[in-house]
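lol forgot to send this yesterday, sorry. struct tokens for the thing we talked abt
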């Protein structure tokens, strides 16, 4: 563990310990701990999406406060579509197919959100049940990255609900540095409300 990683973890542990116990549910505690691990991973020189010269000054990602009302459990009605090419930030194209359209209520409004399977990952046993959920919302270009955010999920077992946790939504890596092919959320994946959960922008010019 390098010194910077230790400093980030130590500071976040202090925040956890000093927060009012009554205000922290088990869910919030788990989410804060998950963020500690995420921030720590960004200091890994070999795997961090940050430019290497940015890592020494990295003090953690910016987040909305954890809010359990943004953690939804949604029934999945499979509705697969044909393979299509999803544009990316670099101009390259990636193959996806629609797996289902989620229907849920959030912030007093009903929403629909297509979810996808990556064709290449479907051929890899560990990722065959992987679901990619890109979206844009009314916080983009203000508090959050203009190119949208992502959620990762797994196909639920028969009879189970899909966990759609916006507190765990994250920025595409192309927000942090060049060289990534980040899928651009389709226009159908716009959620007409403010998703005040998950990661915020790290760099103000994005």
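and heres what i got for the seq, position by position
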């Amino acid at each position: 563990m390098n010194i910077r990683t230790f400093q980030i973890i130590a500071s976040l542990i202090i925040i956890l310990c000093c927060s009012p116990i009554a205000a922290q549910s088990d869910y919030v505690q788990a989410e804060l701990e998950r963020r500690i691990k995420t921030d720590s991973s960004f200091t890994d020189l070999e795997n961090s999406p940050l430019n290497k010269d940015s890592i020494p000054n990295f003090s953690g990602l910016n987040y909305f406060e954890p809010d359990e009302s943004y953690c939804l459990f949604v029934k999945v009605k499979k509705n697969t579509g044909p393979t299509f090419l999803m544009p990316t930030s670099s101009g390259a194209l990636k193959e996806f197919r629609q797996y289902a359209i989620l229907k849920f209520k959030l912030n007093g409004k009903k929403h629909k959100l297509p979810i996808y399977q990556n064709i290449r990952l479907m051929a890899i046993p560990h990722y065959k049940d992987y679901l990619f959920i890109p979206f844009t919302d009314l916080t983009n270009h203000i508090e959050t990255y203009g190119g949208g955010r992502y959620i990762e999920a797994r196909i639920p077992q028969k009879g189970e609900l899909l966990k759609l946790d916006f507190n765990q939504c994250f920025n595409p890596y192309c927000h942090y540095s060049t060289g990534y092919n980040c899928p651009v959320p389709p226009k159908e994946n716009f959620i007409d409300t403010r998703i005040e959960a998950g990661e915020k922008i790290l760099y103000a010019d994005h």
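Residues 3-18 form the longest helix (16 residues). anyway ping me if u want another try
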